[in-house]
Design brief:
By secondary structure, the chain is mostly helical. Helices cover 76% and strands 0% of the residues. It is built from 13 helices and no strands. The model has no long low-confidence stretch (mean pLDDT 90).
Length: 290
């Protein structure tokens, strides 16, 4: 495979956007140190990274394949790789299948539960691509798919599920739901005209913004609850406060009617949310052990 082809595939699945979900999975790894866990060897850590990258690549490649006709109609997405012919539909589907197989194989090295659950996780990830065809709850589906990352990381560390990790997963679910609803405002008219479902189509712009804001309030609450349940210190809760401030900033951008800046809010602010939170989780753990 040529370097050019690799770059095209990376762009196809927006590989750089892994920055959204990977830090929360990494946060779960750090937080799992507070409960009984297996030794985090280099091999285990690498297999977890392979799982994360392969699962996301499979989901994104499948999404681009499944949505190729819709993307070709939408002025916002018609420049994507499959509609333009830069990547053939068969290539995207093959990438999804191969990546999915890599995810299942890597998960099998991480223990019984990761091995048993990985096929079901893949079904959830791939199934999201069809959700907007029949339910406005597609945003919830995406949130669940993303929340599986920290949950999977927790299990891969050999940690027993508890209310702390469930609260963190709920925070990721509501965070994703909230900003995906804002992002989908760009396609409200297109989705309505083409019979696609979303929160903006179902509840209108004001209703969508309100639900997104409420969801992000829950995000902050769940992050706080996770910190209490997992006995975290001041740096962790400072991270929660920063997350809350960034989400307020995101909503302020939308609240000013600057829908053309949603891309900026989506990519920049939410990258700061996940990376900033992870950084302070690490600081908290270092101070806790010092």
């Amino acid at each position: 495979m040529t370097t050019t082809r690799i770059r095209k595939y990376a762009a196809l699945v927006a590989f750089s956007h892994t920055v959204f979900s990977l830090p929360f999975a990494a946060s779960a790894v750090v937080l799992s140190r507070a409960v009984p866990h297996v030794t985090l060897t280099v091999v285990r850590a690498l297999m977890m990274l392979v799982c994360m990258a392969a699962a996301r690549t499979s989901a994104m490649a499948f999404n681009r394949w499944a949505d190729r006709t819709i993307d070709a109609k939408n002025p916002r997405t018609r420049g994507r790789h499959v509609p333009t012919g830069e990547v053939a539909p068969g290539e995207a589907l093959t990438l999804a299948v191969v990546s999915g197989a890599c995810f299942i194989a890597a998960a099998a090295t991480l223990g019984t539960w990761p091995a048993m659950l990985s096929p079901f996780v893949l079904v959830v990830l791939l199934g999201y691509s069809y959700a907007k065809r029949f339910t406005w709850g597609a945003h919830v589906w995406l949130g669940v798919a993303s929340a599986l990352a920290p949950g999977g990381a927790w299990l891969a560390c050999g940690a027993t599920p508890n209310l702390g990790i469930l609260a963190l997963m709920a925070a990721v679910l509501t965070w994703l739901f909230g900003f995906d609803v804002l992002y989908s405002l760009q396609d409200e008219a297109f989705d309505r005209e083409n019979g696609l479902h979303s929160v903006p189509v179902r509840f209108g712009t004001l209703g969508a913004v309100g639900l997104s804001a409420a969801s992000h309030v829950v995000t902050a609450g769940c992050l706080t609850l996770a910190g209490v349940l997992l006995h975290r210190g001041a740096p962790y809760f400072a991270g929660v406060a920063i997350v809350g401030g960034l989400l307020v900033w995101e909503h302020a951008i939308v609240g000013k009617g600057k829908l053309e800046r949603i891309d900026k809010a989506f990519f920049d602010v939410n990258a700061y949310v996940s990376m900033g939170f992870f950084a302070l989780v690490v600081v908290d753990e270092v101070l806790r052990r010092s």
